[in-house]
Amino acid sequence: MCADTDADADTDDSNHVVTALLRHRGDVLLLRRGDAVGTYRGQWGGVSGFAEGQPDEQVRAEIREETGLEPDEDISIVRSGRPVEFEDPDLGRDWVVHSYLFDADSREIELSEEHDEYEWVSPTAMLDLESGLDAVDALEAEAEAEIGETVPELWTAYERVAPTVRSIAADDEHGAAYLSIRALEVLRDRAGVIVAERADFGAAPADEWDELAELARRLLEARPSMAVLRNRVNRTMAEATDSVADGDPAAGAPAVLESALSNLERALGADADAAATAGERIDGAVATLSRSGTVLEALRGGDPSRVFVAESRPAREGIDVAEEFAADDAVDCPVAVHTDAAAAHVLSSEDVDRVVVGADTVLPDGSVVNKTGTRALVLAATREGVPVTVVAATDKISTREEVNLESGDRSAVYDGPASLDVVNPTFDVTPADCVDELVTERGALESADVSDVVEELRELEGWREMF
Q1: What pLDDT score was predicted for residue 138?
Q2: CATH code of the domain in which 282 resides
Q3: Does a structural domain hold residue 257?
Q4: Is the confidence at residue 355, as pLDDT, over 70?
Q5: Which of 124, 154, 173 is the last residue of a domain?
């Protein structure tokens, strides 16, 4: 929350402000307010200003003015939150903060005169963690002490738009890797709050662990078909268990916070490395489908001469990928979109050199669970002799043989008056023998390598039985 420099703004209007948190790779952008602003000088906040008109429009204008980022080009809206209302007795004002969360494509911004510094930090840097970390390694406190005092109710504004178990369960637009990062953010944020609360309520490692373990279990249940979410949550909790049984004050919330922060970095690095490895193989015409951030980065890092993208009904997220790829200044090749039903025709009639797809899950036998349409695309590629590359971090390998395939809304297929059954599977399974290579951050894996990864990941599941 913050106000702009217009001291003459109408009182009723000036009490309504917009605050946007821009997110990139799990961190958010905070700006330190300079001498040019009228309130909260020297304090850190999001992109903000008076809501002089419609908040949804004003917040985009503020982002453009204060960061130089262009809405709908450099950033994308995630969600808006319920307004935060509070009184600042020192200023004698009642504030109404309209909060927003946006994903940013990069960290490069241009500061306006209203701010004199900016930082990309974990949202938990907004919390007073040091007061709750007296018994914890000082390095952890230093990692969070990157900013000074924040504007009032900034954390509350963030919580209104932060990822939750519910938002992860309901998200039908993003891939598994993206949602696994959101899951780790949920654990990080809650652990940070509990650490900050130690200053008032004291340390209770066992109780803190119980609460966070229950939250982790709810995250595991939110998207049961996504092995990457399951593996990354399991790793975070498994790495935080070492000192819980001994009642170490550093255990409980601090241990989960530290593990979540480190595993966020690990996960983001794994996805980027898998994309880079796959990009080295991309040369010539490529066909793909659906929305995979890892595949998109692989295409950007490769040298495609043309890209064919199936529209990926019913949400048609393939169209979004095609538009984003075509609008990238670093891309210099034509992009074509086509219906899902035309995939086999495209592969038979066009000179396609490689099919590149992502994976929501890779089964222990090497079969690939991905957005519906992947199986048809890959079978057509096999028929035409086109090699198939699946790009995914090793965390997407499942420890389970069974498949839990989610179904989409029936109205996305048929909402007419006839009494019809509707089949709308969200995912399908592509046989392992139709996949030429599984490219990960560890390189291309053979079947024996997949088995080794499965065993590694199964060991991480033991945290659920320890306490």
Answers
A1: 41
A2: 3.40.50.10470
A3: no
A4: yes
A5: 124
Residues 19-32: tens digit of each pLDDT: 999 999 999 999 99
Domain that includes residue 282, residue range:
275-399+423-465
pLDDT tens digits for range 164-217: 999 999 998 787 889 999 999 999 999 999 999 998 888 888 899 999 999 999
Residue 375 domain-assigned? yes
* Integer-rounded Cα radius of gyration of the chain: 24
Cβ-contact 325, 332 below 8 angstroms: no
Q: Is 445 inside a domain boundary? A: yes
Q: Is 201 exposed, middle or buried (0-12, 13-18, 19+ CB in 10 A)?
A: exposed
pTM (two decimals): 0.83
Peptide bond preceding 314: is omega within 30 degrees of 0, i.e. cis?
A: yes
The region, left, alpha or beta by phi > 0 then psi within -120 to 50, assigned to residue 175 is beta
Q: What CA–CA distance (Å, rounded) separates 143 from 181?
A: 20
Alpha helices in 17-76 (DSSP H): 55-67
DSSP state of 462: G
Distance in angstroms (rounded) separating the CA atoms of residues 28 and 127: 13
SS3 110: coil
* Placement of tokens 């906040």 in the chain: 45
Between strands 368-371 and 335-338, the pairing is: unpaired
Average pLDDT, the chain: 89
Question: Looking at the domain assignment, is residue 170 inside a domain?
Answer: no
What CATH number does residue 66 fall under? Answer: 3.90.79.10
Round to whole Å and give the CA distance between 284 and 302: 9
8 A C-beta contact, residue 42 and residue 124:
no
Cα–Cα distance measured from residue 274 to residue 272, given in angstroms and rounded to the nearest whole number: 5
Mark which of 66, 94, 124 sits at the end of a domain.
124
Tokens for 180, please give them.
């696994």
- Which amino acid appears at position 373 of this protein? G
253-278 pLDDT, tens digit each? 999 999 999 999 999 999 999 999 99
Residue predicted with more confidence, 368 or 14: 368
Three-state secondary structure string covering 378-442: HHHHHHHCCCEEEECCHHHECCCCCCCCCECCHHHCCCCCCCCCCCCECEEEECHHHCCEEEECC
Q: How many domains does the chain have?
A: 2
Pairing of strands 388-391, 115-121: unpaired
Q: Per residue in 375-399, pLDDT tens?
A: 999 999 999 999 999 999 999 999 9
